[in-house]
């Protein structure tokens, strides 16, 4: 998977001729669809419209049943011929899918193409659900799902409101070759850390960058957060904290490593509030029962 998560969970890249589902016609009833983007595929399943899917992209790994669909490639490296080979009646793609030339060809192919806006907060998740529902002609189901997910965000906000001293969290995308690639501001990781009641230990830059030893020490994270899969899959706490700079941080002294599934943690689909709650409890413990 190399640095797949880097592109997937960075800020959305600008693609040619992008437009939201709010300005495009919905697909024909029961049209067969290709879903591009893990959160988009999740929403289609959550709306009960999965029977319409004839293919998905590489990032669409949830629910498990989605993996049985033909894979048309990575969302930022699409080949038009691969997408069109499944003869879709429509293409439903997350903002930032690409490359732009490929998206342009797909839009010119005559197959209806709907782009869904990306975003890393409560309002963006709920809007994403409603936009997908509109495109599918399942607006009532989408509103019900949006209300349910909104309630989960409300419960999360109440739980995180009790945090008086935020934990500093360092999200590491990769440790390949000894280089620590970490998330700054404007990333899905930064947004999820804040949603969970934590504080991103890296605030001096946007996007993902390699950290120097000095920068790691200055960040002084209380916890290290990593995806459970990817370039550093299988690395345990002992290996992570074998890095001298990480070992010297509060996280290293406590060997506090949190690992979560990448799409669950950073996809900002219907499970976003649940993921933030799980991260919150990993940082602060479960709330005391009444």
Task: Provide an overview of this structure.
By secondary structure, this protein is of the alpha/beta class. Helix content is 39%, strand content 15%. It contains 13 helices and 10 strands. The chain has helices at 4-9, 38-46, 80-84, 100-108, 122-136, 139-160, 188-195, 213-219, 237-240, 244-247, 250-254, 262-266, 272-284, and strands at 33-36, 53-56, 90-94, 113-116, 168-174, 180-183, 199-200, 208-211, 223-227, 257-260. The strands form 2 sheets. Strands 5, 6, 7, 8, 9 and 10 form a 6-stranded mixed sheet that branches. Strand 5 and strand 6 form a beta hairpin. Helix 5 packs antiparallel against helix 6 (139-160). The longest helix is centred in the middle third of the chain and has 22 residues, at 139-160. The N and C termini lie far apart (44 Å). Mean pLDDT is 91; it is low at 1-7 and 14-25.
Order of helices and strands: HEHEHEHEHHEEHEEHEHHHEHH
How many DSSP H or I helices? 13
Please report the distance between the alpha carbons of the first and last residues: 44 Å
Radius of gyration: 19 Å
The low-confidence runs, each spanning 5 or more residues with pLDDT under 50, are 1-7, 14-25
Per DSSP, what share of the residues sits in E-state strands of 2 or more residues? 5-15%
**Mean pLDDT rating:** 91
Q: What's the number of extended β-strand segments?
A: 10
Shape: globular
The SS-based structural class is alpha/beta
How many strands, which pairing sense, and closed or not: the largest β-sheet? 6 strands, mixed
What portion of residues is helical?
25-40%
């Amino acid at each position: 998977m190399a640095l797949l998560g880097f592109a997937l969970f960075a800020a959305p890249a600008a693609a040619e001729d992008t437009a939201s589902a709010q300005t495009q016609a919905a697909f024909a009833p029961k049209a067969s669809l290709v879903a591009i983007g893990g959160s988009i595929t999740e929403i289609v399943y959550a709306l009960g419209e999965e029977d319409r899917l004839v293919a998905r992209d590489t990032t669409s790994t949830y629910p498990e049943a989605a993996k049985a669909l033909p894979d048309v490639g990575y969302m930022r490296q699409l080949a038009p011929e691969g997408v069109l080979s499944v003869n879709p009646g429509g293409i439903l793609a997350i903002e930032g899918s690409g490359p732009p030339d490929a998206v342009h060809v797909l839009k010119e192919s005559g197959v209806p193409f709907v782009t869904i806006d990306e975003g890393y907060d409560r309002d963006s998740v709920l809007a994403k659900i409603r936009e997908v529902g509109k495109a599918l002609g399942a607006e009532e189901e989408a509103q019900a799902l949006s209300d349910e997910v909104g309630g989960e965000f409300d419960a999360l906000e109440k739980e995180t409101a009790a945090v008086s001293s935020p934990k500093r969290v360092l999200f590491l995308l990769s440790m390949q070759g000894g280089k620590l690639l970490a998330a700054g501001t404007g990333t899905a990781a930064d947004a999820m850390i804040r949603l969970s009641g934590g504080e991103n230990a890296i605030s001096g830059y946007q996007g993902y960058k390699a950290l120097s030893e000095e920068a790691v020490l200055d960040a002084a994270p209380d916890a290290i957060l990593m995806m459970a899969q990817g370039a550093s899959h299988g690395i345990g706490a002992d290996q992570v904290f074998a890095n001298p700079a990480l070992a010297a941080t509060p996280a290293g002294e406590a060997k506090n490593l949190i690992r979560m599934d990448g799409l669950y943690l950073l996809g900002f689909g219907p499970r976003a509030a649940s993921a933030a709650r799980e991260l919150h409890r990993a940082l602060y413990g479960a709330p005391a029962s009444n």
